[in-house]
Amino acid sequence: MILSIVWVLFLDAGLAVGAYLTARALGADLFAALLIGTIVAGLRAAYVIIRRHEVDAFSLFMIATFGIGLVMSVLTGSPRFLLAKDSIATAVSGMIFLSTLLAGKPMMFYLAQRFGASSAEERLEWQRLWPTNAGFRALFRRQTVVWGIAFLVEAVAKLILVLLLPVATMAPIVPFFTPVLITTLVIWTVRDSAKAQRRLRAEAASPSVVES
């Protein structure tokens, strides 16, 4: 399951990184390479929406994140600012995650649903569980908090490095920050979800829970 999720994340984020590195290897300047990477990321997100024949929250999140980078790439030609815009986009991602806790379902519900509920029947079952299972809701809220805070911490750390270190040093490194962070978070999320499933099954089998 982890390998499957990492592969999808590679397609969602790794294609953009590969496009950036390929453009640089072919002699493109930093601005052009970053712009190409951002466009490829947006095309990937659009492809996912077309293939699934629906606009889910995760796809909208990806397009919003990449759209911020694209707009900033067009508005400025400063290489350092183009690197800094990744930190801004990551920070916005963290704020989006945390803001979903205030209304409706948290972002991790939609992210997990994309990988764990591929059929329409499974997605309907998740919709049924949300209002009826407190443990189900608590799981995704906790994971959304962890993801949101992790994005904000990464954004601050990345921005500090971009401002302190030479552009030539950070340019080939910055695109890898978010994919590495997301892969780490995915591994933690899968393990946390497995623990939560075992705990919920144990509670369901408990006589005290049945009596209540």
Give a structural overview.
This is Intracellular septation protein A. The chain crosses the membrane at residues 28-50, 57-75, 87-104, 145-167, 173-191. Keywords: Membrane, Transmembrane, Transmembrane helix. This protein has 212 residues and is mainly α. The chain has helices spanning 2-25, 30-52, 57-75, 79-99, 107-116, 120-132, 134-164, 167-170, 174-205, 207-211. α2 (30-52) runs antiparallel to α3, α4 (79-99) runs antiparallel to α7 and α5 packs across α7. The chain is elongated, with a radius of gyration of 19 Å. The two termini are 35 Å apart. 28% of the residues are buried.
Q: Strand percentage, roughly?
A: under 5%
The whole-angstrom Rg is 19 Å
**Percentage of helical residues?**
over 70%
**How many structural domains in the coordinates?**
1
Brief characterization of the structure:
With 212 residues, this protein is mainly α. It has helices spanning 2-25, 30-52, 57-75, 79-99, 107-116, 120-132, 134-164, 167-170, 174-205, 207-211. This is Intracellular septation protein A.
